[in-house]
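job 3f2a | input accepted
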Amino acid sequence: MEENTQEYDEEVQYSYSLIHQEENVVHSNDALAVFTENNLQGEQIFIAYFEREGGHWNWKQTRGAEWDTPVKWSAMHEEPYIYSGAISDNSIKEVHAGQMQAKIIHIKEDKRFWYVISREKDVEVKMVMADGTEKIVEEIDEEMLKEWQDKKTE
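job 3f2a | predicted structure (154 res):
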């Protein structure tokens, strides 16, 4: 058993980098953190929401994203509703979830991450491009998903 554990530990090397943190985001004694994780799937980015209760920080909700996947954005399913997503398209200048403009965080090179904290569930997400045009973005890019599925069956 010990030998298997050692082999597993050597194979799986997870690393984390804190990118951004904010306290008192919805009310006092709450916080969010944006961090990257390097794992077997490569680099992923996460946003986590915390609340301080009884002197301890409690992890409440998390959402993750990957670069260049069919999943363009996601939302947490409980209040506060945090909409977020990864961006690797430099022509995107702004992101809006409902009436709120997203905070965009530069990660590295052409990789950015956006999020909006909202009290509203199921809002429309749109991107404002460098040329001023606006594009409503579905949570899943159906064309990209089909391309991924086609590649898997080849």
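job 3f2a | The longest strand covers residues 42-53.
job 3f2a | closed
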